[in-house]
Amino acid sequence: MSTQRSQSSQLFQQASKRIPGGVNSPVRAFNGVGGDPVFFERAEGAYVYDADNNRYIDYVGSWGPMILGHSHPEVITAIQQTAERGTSFGAPTAIEIEMAEKVCQVMPNIEQIRFVSSGTEATMSALRLARGATGRDKIVKFHGCYHGHGDSLLVNAGSGALTMGVPSSPGVPTALAELTITLPFNDPEAAAACWAEHGDDIAAVIVEPVAGNMNCIPPQAGFLEALRSLCDQHGSLLIFDEVMTGFRVALGGAQSVYNVVPDLTTLGKIVGGGLPVGAFGGKREIMQQIAPTGPVYQAGTLSGNPLAMAAGLKTLELISAPNFYNDLSAKTTLLLNGLQAAADEAGIAFTTSQVGAMFGLFFTEQTEVKSFAESTACDLDRFKQFFHAMLDQGVYLAPSAYEAGFVSATHTEADLNATIQAAATAFKQL
Ligand code: KE4
User: Fold this and answer.
1) Alpha carbon distance 396, 8 (integer Å)
2) What are phi and psi of 115, to 5 degrees?
3) Which CATH class is domain 6-71+323-429?
4) Among 56, 59, 146, 402, which one carries the catalytic annotation?
5) Which residues contact 319 (CB under 8 A, 6 or more apart)?
6) Whole-model pTM above 0.85?
7) How far apart are CA 399 and CA 23, in angstroms?
8) Catalytic residue among 241, 263, 379, 392, which?
């Protein structure tokens, strides 16, 4: 079955005249899978509807934020009621206090928090804070991890940078890029060797505690603990980039799943409930060094925007419901077990990964994918064929082999079984 998407194609042509690549974020452009991107017109619950009014079961969820499903009525009402009282003041509001208290309550390793408007702002600011607080310049990140498009972090990056084949972007001054050390994810020996050589010059290591931008790769036992120990030994700061994993893998984020305490945490996506919110936070004595209480400057016109706070706060309230994550994880497990059975039935080399309601799909003979090298060695052509075969059957997966998938609270068992059926057909076409 091939779905007709002529409206999307026309819109793509028009968009490309005024917007580079016709998109406002590269990974949306379908360069990772081929063909024209789908233009969406509306979304509700687990479904997105394109400009040709085709319906898709959505496993992208706006790259993570839509954990409650699209257009949740209580979130929409919270936004509407807040908007009627004004959309932005550029001055402090009470809802920012409620939001800060709520995040610090569910993520107690965050003693103080600063809200910003994107995950990129959060990680960029956290790095500046770490450099300011330690007086050191070097930072460590991991091949294939993506932390937004801040200059120091576009070195061997994942997500769209990897999808586009430009993991280290032009435009980043060599002098700056040289201060970013990149290591293989899930390799504690390489990390130990790095600190042995550079330890006293390293301001911070930033890591996705579950890598979600080179597909979905969980940490091997001991990896995060090794980073914590190396930071303690050498006075470096441990930054958990939980923009994707925060409120996704558990209410308390990956740090509550793996019981490793970071010095700083960055947040995004779900924390804004679909509106632009990022945040960075952590130990009080570190956060106090951020302006205006300290010398490390950081600012933002729309930081703590009331609309975004209202959407985020309502979202955090709703996902705090009992059994919310147990139910989400169970749905994700049901989906992945069904996909695996369908692949096995079709004789397709395929495996999956899962942490909570976040998952990865890999076309490989391996039973587990543990590193960037193993992820990029998977069968990319098969993924592309599978992506389009699923899209044509009304299932929207991330248009890149280097992204994670997400289940929402609104995905029903019928949706999951329909997805499994579509995959059974798609696997047979590979
Ligand atoms: P934003 O600046 O896109 O809000 O957040 C950057 C970011 C930071 N840290 C992690 C772990 C992230 O995953 C992201 C952004 N994720 C990508 C998708 N994997 C956003 C999608 C896009 O770039 O359009």
Assistant:
1) 14
2) -90, 140
3) alpha beta
4) 146
5) 67, 68, 247, 251, 270, 325, 409
6) yes
7) 13
8) 241
3-class DSSP state of 246: strand
CA 64-208-198 angle, to 5 degrees, is: 160
**Given this structure, which CATH class describes domain 73-319?**
alpha beta
Ligand 1 mutation target, pool 40, 145, 159, 267, most atoms within 8 A of CB: 159
Give yes or no: 297 in active site.
Answer: no
Q: Which amino acid is at 139?
A: I
Alpha helices in 259-299 (DSSP H): 284-287
Q: Could you give the CA distance from residue 36 to residue 281 in angstroms, rounded to a whole number?
A: 39
C-alpha dihedral sign at 96, 94, 263, 131: positive
CA of 146 to the centre of ligand 1 (A): 7
What's the chain's Rg over C-alpha atoms?
A: 21
CA distance 295 to 303: 19
Residue 124: both structure tokens together: 């960029």
What are the extents of the domains in the chain? 6-71+323-429, 73-319
Alpha-carbon dihedral angle through residues 62, 68, 238, 128, given to the nearest 10 degrees: 50
Going residue by residue through the chain, which has 430 residues, state the pLDDT in tens, using 9 for 90 and above.
457 999 999 999 999 999 999 999 999 999 999 999 999 999 999 999 999 999 999 999 999 999 999 999 999 999 999 999 999 999 999 999 999 999 999 999 999 999 999 999 999 999 999 999 999 999 999 999 999 999 999 988 888 888 888 878 899 999 999 999 999 999 999 999 999 999 899 999 999 999 999 999 999 999 999 999 999 999 999 999 999 999 999 999 999 999 999 999 999 999 999 999 999 999 999 999 999 999 999 999 999 999 999 999 999 999 999 999 999 999 999 999 999 999 999 999 999 999 999 999 999 999 999 999 999 999 999 999 999 999 999 999 999 999 999 999 999 999 999 999 999 999 999 9
- Whether 269 is a known active-site residue: answer yes
What are the helix (H) ranges across 25-93?
A: 73-83
Query: Is the CB of residue 106 less than 8 Å from the CB of residue 267?
Result: no
| C-alpha 197 to ligand 1 mean position (Å) | 31
Q: Is the shortest distance between the CB of 153 and ligand 1 below 6 Å? A: no
Residue closest via CA to ligand 1's atom 6 equals: 148
CA 391, 418, 73, 268 torsion-angle sign: negative
Burial of 12 (0-12, 13-18, 19+ CB in 10 A): buried
- Which two three-digit tokens encode residue 70? 């699209």
